[in-house]
Each structure stands twice: as C-alpha cells, then as structure tokens.
TrEMBL record:
It comes from Russula ochroleuca. This is C-4 methyl sterol oxidase. Pfam families: FA_hydroxylase (PF04116). Residues 316-337 are annotated as: Disordered. The keyword Transmembrane applies.
Length: 337
C-alpha cells in the first residue's frame, strides 16, 4: 500500500480527502516509522475510518484468538506434554475442539463482530485517537496497559461472581462451564450475554481512561486486546509448565488458578491476578486443595504420584458437579416460588 494523500475519505462530517484529514494533524510525515506509515495507508486505502477500524479490529481479534489457540491444539496432540496437564486424564478430543470452535466462531460473527464495528464511533466519542499518527511512545502505553489489566481483573472478579448466582448461572454462565477441564479454544465459549457482560470489563477500561485523559490511541487498545486474549486462552489451556508466568510473577493467575475454577466449580473468580480472590477469601478451597495435593504426593515416585493426582482430581471434580447441581436446584426453587 502506498500513501495517496489525495484519496477521498467518507466521514461522518461529509467527504474529505485523506490529505485534508491528515493535513489537519500538523505531523511531519517524514518522521513516521514503518508501522505508522502502514496505519495511514490502511485508513486511506479503505477510505472510511469506521469501516477501516472495524475490519482491522475484527481481523486482529480472529488472528490473535485462533493464532494463540493453535500451539495449545498441537500441545494437546503430543503425549509428552501430558505431565504438565492439570487434569491429565482429560485431554480434549479433536471432535470436542471442533464443536467448541464452531460455537466460538458463531459467537464471533453474531455477537462480537457487530460490537467490534460499533467500537469506532464509541471510542471516538470518548476522545480516543484512531486513524491518527504518530503512535504514542511505549512510556505512555505502559501505565495505560497496567490500568486496563487492573480494571478488567476487578470488573471480571465481581461480575463473574454474579454469574454464579443461581438464575444467572442456569441461564447464562452454565454454557462456559460445559468444560470442567478447559482447553485454549474454550476461552470465549460462552453465552452471548456473558460475552457482552465480561467483554465490558475489557472495553470499558480504555473508555473510562479516555474520559479522564485525552492521550489514548486505539493501537494501545489493540496491544491490550492481544495481551488479554493471550491471558484468557492461556488460563484455559489446562497446562501449568515450570516456565508458566505464575511461577515468575506470583500474583499472576494463569491456568493453574482458573483450571481449578472449572474443575471444582467454586473459588478463583478473577482473570489476571490472584489478589481479589486472596483478599476476599474466595480461594480458600483452592489453597486447601493445593496443600492436600502437596502433602499426599510428597516423596512419591512418578507412577504413584500420578495415581494419587488422578484420584484427587476426580474427587474434586465430583464435588464440583455436586456444587453445580446445587446451584441449578436453587435456580429451579427460585423459579417455582
Ligand atoms: Zn465461572
Ligand atoms: Zn473459564
């Protein structure tokens, strides 16, 4: 793509040329880096900022989501990695992964796609930069990204707990809990309302930031979305490697934390960090389970250790099924009142 500053733009304020649009920026175009020049070329080529942002956002989401899932699909197919699987006997079959992919794709095209196309006008109305160049410096981006992580984790923690109340669970969140041993592709396998509710935590952080500070660029939001997708997919991967992030950053949740939520149905409601669950005591069962597992497998050889682990995982999962049934029974009770 080459820059054509005479291309015609179709904008909400009428037609205008790209040169007019970018001329108003007072930018020395010769100083732009390669990414910034491609960014400009994209907006000029598409000719409509709303559509250009919508297409770019949707492609980014699909590429990152499925791109990040592929390594986990490969890992699931290689028995060597089983020793790091949190629920070793629960490896998803190709049929299960395909069923899940179809569900996720349906949701992407019917719910997330339209919402993504609405993002541009909403973002602009909050004062976010979209087509503008140059991009902000990484020094400006880092505190913004930190804020988005902290905000999303807090929002998710409380709304996820709400989704576990009987009626919301039965009608909305149950779908996401279909997999008691999750895998990467299951990260966004959820009811459309859940996608909207929990997606708010991801999107509202950047909008809230714009409300107070005028220096947010959508490219920073793209970096945030990429990191957030990596976080969500990895948390559902079902694997805890010695090099997983939670072993380096102790307050990072990771798969080891969220896998327990799917297996035991209780505790660990947050996404990225462990602090809300620790602070409000919603990790007590998880910590007790970890301690029991540690004590029971101490000093055992690999074969015995595996047998004990499998037995304890199965018991915890049974308890999880019972807890889920109890919540659904309460929902029935509420309906009949
Ligand atoms: Zn849940
Ligand atoms: Zn989950």
């Amino acid at each position: 793509m080459s820059l054509n500053l005479n291309a015609t733009f179709v904008g909400s304020s009428g037609d205008f040329t790209a040169s007019q649009l970018y001329a108003g920026l007072n930018v020395d175009f010769s100083q732009l880096n390669w990414f910034e020049r491609q960014w400009m070329a994209w907006y000029i080529w598409i000719g409509n900022p709303l559509i250009a942002t919508g297409i770019a956002s949707f492609i980014l989401h699909e590429t990152v989501y499925f791109g990040r899932c592929i390594p986990w699909i490969i890992i699931d197919a290689i028995p060597y990695f089983r020793k790091w699987k949190l629920q070793p006997s629960k490896v998803p079959t190709p049929e299960e992964q395909w069923e899940c992919t179809k569900g996720v794709l349906f949701s992407h095209f019917t719910v997330e796609g339209p919402a993504i196309f609405l993002f541009h006008p909403v973002a602009e109305s909050f004062g976010m930069s979209t087509w503008q160049v140059p991009f902000p410096s990484w020094q400006a981006m880092i505190p913004q990204l930190a804020f988005f992580f902290i905000f999303e984790d807090m929002f998710h923690y409380f709304s996820h707990q709400l989704l576990h109340t009987p009626l919301l669970y039965k009608h909305i969140h149950k779908l996401h809990h279909k997999y008691s041993a999750p895998f990467g592709l299951a990260a966004e396998y959820a009811h459309p309302l859940e996608v909207m509710i929990l997606g708010t935590g991801t999107i509202f952080g950047p909008l809230l930031y714009c409300w107070f500070r005028p220096n947010l660029h959508i490219v920073t939001v793209y970096i945030w979305i990429t990191l957030r997708l990596f976080q969500a997919i990895d948390a559902h991967s079902g694997y805890d490697f010695p090099w997983s992030l939670q072993h380096i950053v102790p307050f990072w949740s990771g798969a080891e934390h969220h896998d327990f939520h799917h297996m035991a149905f209780v505790n660990n409601f947050s996404t990225s960090f462990r602090w809300w669950d620790r602070l409000l005591g919603t990790d007590k069962k998880y910590l007790a389970y970890r301690e029991r597992m540690r004590a029971a497998t101490k000093g055992l050889d690999a074969a015995k250790r595996k047998a004990v682990e499998e037995k304890m995982v199965a018991e915890e999962e049974e308890a999880g099924f019972a807890a889920e049934k109890e919540v659904e029974r309460q929902a029935e009770g509420k309906k009949n009142q």
